[in-house]
UniProtKB/TrEMBL annotation:
Main EC class the enzyme belongs to: transferase
Name of the protein in its database record: Flavin-dependent thymidylate synthase
Gene Ontology terms: biological process: methylation
Catalytic activity, reaction form: dUMP + (6R)-5,10-methylene-5,6,7,8-tetrahydrofolate + NADPH + H(+) = dTMP + (6S)-5,6,7,8-tetrahydrofolate + NADP(+)
Source organism of this protein record: Streptomyces pyxinicus
């Protein structure tokens, strides 16, 4: 798919002869990235199947330019009892005020409280959901009792330009020109997507990293 970027860029100087043209892929892509000529990076497509808590999906759907989504529907199918419980290495304590805060590890007591309360809430919500379904209440009504920690699944389709913009905001990297402070749960998903991006478009990904992770 790196070559799709090259062809899209060369049409400006070669016209129709850009199809099948030869030349440096690495040099041209790095030039495009460095000087932020972004449109050639839109001429490709990647589709990901995402499984994540609902609160992660809601953050994800804020990315609209260059993205298309289709999510499973709680109106048409009974949702599965899969819920998110943060791992012990998840920072729990917010220190500072909005716009100038950081997260720190919690104590063992705080983790135990979070884990136990979260699991108990999930059990209660799932039982309530099942009671309503067994009573013949429509799925679209019964689902309202389920928390945002419930897992959902969706297809997300994007191009390299929109993906790089997503990664610049949803991953924290010391080499990035512009700092980002993503929520950890969406960052974990973004990191997995970046691995696929690097495999499918290695030249484009390398140029993105070389140019301080600035989306063109």
């Amino acid at each position: 798919m790196d070559y799709d970027v090259v062809q899209a860029a060369r049409v400006s100087t070669l016209g129709a002869d850009a199809a099948g043209s030869d030349g440096s892929t690495k040099g041209l892509i790095n030039f495009l990235m460095r000087d932020r000529h972004g449109s050639p990076f839109e001429h490709n497509s990647m589709t990901f199947l995402i499984q994540a808590p609902i609160f992660v999906a809601r953050e994800w759907f804020r990315h609209r330019v260059g993205w298309s989504y289709n999510e499973e529907s709680g109106r048409y199918r009974e949702l599965a009892p899969v819920f998110y419980v943060p791992a012990e290495d998840r920072n729990l304590v917010q220190v500072g005020k909005p716009g100038a805060y950081r997260f720190q590890p919690g104590t063992q007591l705080q983790y135990s409280v979070m884990r136990d309360v979260t699991r108990e809430n999930y059990r209660h919500a799932w039982n309530s959901y099942q009671v309503m379904l067994r009573a013949g209440i429509a799925r679209e009504v019964a689902r309202s009792v389920l928390p945002v920690g419930t897992y959902t699944s969706f297809f997300a389709t994007c191009n390299a330009r929109s993906l790089m913009h997503f990664l610049s905001l949803r991953t924290a990297d010391k080499a990035a020109l512009f700092p980002s402070f993503p929520q950890r749960e969406i960052e974990m998903a973004a990191q997995q997507m970046e691995q696929h991006f690097a495999e499918q478009m290695p030249v484009t990904h390398a140029a993105y990293v070389k140019n301080q992770r600035v989306a063109p």
